[in-house]
Amino acid sequence: MSLRSPSHALTRLGAVAAVTLAVVLLGAGSAAAHVETDPGQATKGDDATITFRVPNEEETAGVVKLEVSFPLDHPVAEARTSPMPGWTANVTMTTLPTPVHQNNSDVKDAVQTVTWTADPGNQIKPGEFLRFSVLAGPLADNADELTFKALQTYSNGDVVRWIDPPAAAGAPEPEHPAPTLTLVSDNADAAPAKPADDPASTSDSTARWLGGAGLAIGILGLALGIVIAVRGRRGTPAEDKG
């Protein structure tokens, strides 16, 4: 039985490496596309700065509006937005049909939505993201997670509805998961706050893409090294036996 030639093996390994590169890069891009809280953890019963990280997923349109609906089953009594150049923020309050008891009191009025709208000529450009922050509280002391439904509007009229409930353990992630905030019992359990970024738009996925590309290139290099070694061994003349 004849063995396949080294050049054929090179072609096959090169194809495998190319597919690996594509899968890694596509996975990195999709992982960076969600609207989500950052950091995704806060302390029960306390006020917290909740930051929503909003990437632009489209190639020819900009993000011009973000509307976040706050949970009313575990209501938040107050919210204050952080000033953002080029954007106008608006907090809408509502009176609950039935007061909700939490933090040793009855909450009657709660934050319903927080909306950020881009000023004329401003937007989150393709390949960029922004962080929208709001100081809100007190957060519920009788819940482990808060879910915020978000509507992301583009300059071409497209609206992405980040409203799917969190997936159960072991289930696949929904296509448009709603941003969630995990609540912990005390400050010792809470994740440390991340340093504030420059409010100007920056690339969200560059680091992930570079990391994925480096991994795939490493795989390709390893494959090429194996083929070259095989070719070297096959091409070495047999030693004389006399």
What does this structure look like?
With 242 residues, the protein is of the alpha+beta class. The protein folds into 2 domains: 1-32 and 205-242; 35-202, Uncharacterised protein YcnI-like PF07987, DUF1775 (Immunoglobulin-like), CATH 2.60.40.2230. The chain has helices at 6-31, 206-235; strands at 36-37, 41-43, 48-55, 63-69, 78-81, 87-102, 105-118, 129-137, 145-147, 149-154, 159-162, 180-184. The strands form 3 sheets. Strands 6-7-4-10-11 form a 5-stranded antiparallel β-sheet, with no helix packed on it. Strand 6 and strand 7 (105-118) form a beta hairpin. Helix 1 runs antiparallel to helix 2. The model is unreliable at 6-32, 198-210 and 238-242 (pLDDT under 50).
As a percent range, the share of helical residues equals 10-25%
As residue ranges, the low-confidence spans are 6-32, 198-210, 238-242
Could you say which overall geometry the principal axes of the C-alpha atoms support?
globular
Strand content: 25-35%
Biggest sheet record: 5 strands, antiparallel
The CATH architecture of the largest domain would be: Sandwich
CATH T-level topology of the largest domain: Immunoglobulin-like
Q: What's the CATH H-level homologous superfamily of the largest domain?
A: Uncharacterised protein YcnI-like PF07987, DUF1775
Order of helices and strands: HEEEEEEEEEEEEH
Mean pLDDT across all residues, rounded? Answer: 78
